[in-house]
Amino acid sequence: MNIAILGFGTIGSGVYEIVNQIQAEELKDCKVTKILDLPQNKDKLDIIVCDINDITEDESIDLVVETMGGIHPAYEFIQNCLQHKKHVVTANKAVVAAHMSDFLKSAKENGVQFRFEASTGGGIPWLASIQKAKRIDEISSFYGIFNGTTNYILDSMNTLNEEFETALKKAQQLGYAEANPSADIDGYDVQNKVTISAALAFDSKIDMKDFPCFSMANITYEDIQYLKSHHQMIKYIGQAIKKENMYEAFVMPMVFASNSLEANIPSNFNIVTLNGNTIGELKFYGQGAGKLPTANAIVEDILDIKNQISYGKVSLDKKLSYCNTLLKEKYLIRTNCPIENEWIDSVECKGANYYITTKAISTKDFMKLVNSISDQKAMIAKYM
Amino acid sequence: MNIAILGFGTIGSGVYEIVNQIQAEELKDCKVTKILDLPQNKDKLDIIVCDINDITEDESIDLVVETMGGIHPAYEFIQNCLQHKKHVVTANKAVVAAHMSDFLKSAKENGVQFRFEASTGGGIPWLASIQKAKRIDEISSFYGIFNGTTNYILDSMNTLNEEFETALKKAQQLGYAEANPSADIDGYDVQNKVTISAALAFDSKIDMKDFPCFSMANITYEDIQYLKSHHQMIKYIGQAIKKENMYEAFVMPMVFASNSLEANIPSNFNIVTLNGNTIGELKFYGQGAGKLPTANAIVEDILDIKNQISYGKVSLDKKLSYCNTLLKEKYLIRTNCPIENEWIDSVECKGANYYITTKAISTKDFMKLVNSISDQKAMIAKYM
After folding, report:
1. What CATH number has the domain spanning A138-287+319-383?
2. Do A27 and B283 touch (CB under 8 A)?
3. Which of A243, A250, A254, A245 is nearest to A326 (CA)?
4. Where is the Homoserine dehydrogenase catalytic domain (chains A, B) (predicted)?
5. In this predicted complex, what is the ipTM?
6. Is A159 within 8 Å of A150 (Cβ atoms)?
7. Any idea which fold B2-115 has?
8. With bands split at pLDDT 50, 70 and 90, how would you rate the model's confidence at B257?
9. Is the CATH code 3.40.190.10 the one for domain B127-287+319-383?
């Protein structure tokens, strides 16, 4: 199987290393024969090309790995490759979350495969596990720590007693966070991953604009200390739940008991959980990002395509509506303004701040409550 | 695909329920058509037969699920079914650990499949994950909580402040532990599961008589309190590690930091971890036993056979020798007799007991140390 890689950054070079350098029996007949990169990198390796047509028009290439990231030109390149009857494997969550159904349609029309395990959960076999579980079970819900950067920040704040800004800077120095960290800390990364996971778990097209996504940037060292004194810990969570033909989904900080698994996830690791009717609760833990774990997930997809392994076609045919009154949950709000409202259960004062716990209320009511808060620095979280 | 089930206890009836009653697309062409049970149960269901030949001689049966447990007559029945060119799926860890290579040989000779996901980790997709990871990575080690009964006991001792005997009795009342709990608390159950996991992970026949298996029955409420005061928790662990053509394996209590995932595994859940060179550390958590989770794992095997899904043939061809000097680890011993020895690092007195921590020593030296202890109630554990 001849493979081309689009993009030769961290993930692309990881795929190249695994496919061309690891001595595994399964990989013997796989070879990276072309890599698309910028003209200034042309001399790095003799298989680098700079024109996508050198790949799409090359009939010897069976499969294309897309690791460029972003929506454009990744979208056009993926479509172009599928239309040229090449299997496509990608780690690009943004383009998959936005265009999954287009890609699946193109792949089907052209008799090839489109796979994206590495887009969500990095090296954790998460999407395959959803697909596998669904052969028998209905998946009623899933949730988890889908972002390693924010987990690294929260874990450093908790274990090293650091302020948010200090922990973020360290994450940037280690290459876990971008110079502009918004995609991680404001939740767009997790939003993409929840969208992809929910589409697979619930067999339905999910529009990420429908469900709420709250930033974790307002979590302070004091918040973590406050929760610690209550034997709790805050983590940044993506979650989705289905009831009949409706669903709810969130990206938001969530409060866990300090002896829960989630509260104890260290460093930049991820943990994701699914619930099925016969399998019960399954959790998967591992590196949700990084060169070799992510490249490993891509190569697992390549091998599944090569060996025609499939846990069933991805279908997005079910009509599922977003509904913000399915769940009734308790929330925690930390703000410097007192709130008076029928939904408030208890208030604790800490210095200039109020830690306000709500009664179990619907998302609809919670959104009204949030919109009534003028404090731009307010921290909001859901209780697990 | 017509399926016969051998044994109609908890697991067998779970498989029957899932295959014949769950409305999943994938299961539409699967049907349980015969169940082998005792003559006194003949009238329970009209598909019950009492003679194995009614199944082996029935050409309409494609696959046999063995859920009887124990070595005999499970061994003979499995071989008989394979020789009659029927695929076999089993949850029976004892017979798989003892005779895996015979079964794989018979299956190969007869052009059928032999699968045993449910034998280890119950509903957790553990063996499939080992097989999948191995397509790319060398698995250097694995460890985990492989037994839900003992985890339930330790968790109750820790969170409900119960004595060992009280927790064990509750586990028996809940059906987690047998009337004779030895297979769980003395480690034979975990020994089987480590043997099966190591064979798959390391591609080698593993003889469970080679590696040490320590009981957890000597762990007391006082031990748990002592460890709690050191921010630690004890769990009952199976572990194996490979270096070149040698391996070490253990079944024994292990001491974990209280903020580790293992320390926080609740109730009767399992967690198992593998380490690969590119994927890093992967952990899998779920129900390691119980009717529907175990039956789910069996049905996943059935569907993999039906859909010809395989992560590669199981080969036990590599020659791997047990070696008790690969690892150097620290151990904890609680005993009422003082020990004087060059390997001792520190001793703490608590009432009539000494809590003795060793230096990092080989298993060989540790075994010498253990054999020198006359206290039959001594508790021994390895530090993680």
Report:
1. 3.30.360.10
2. no
3. A243
4. 125-303
5. 0.97
6. no
7. Rossmann fold (3.40.50)
8. very high
9. no
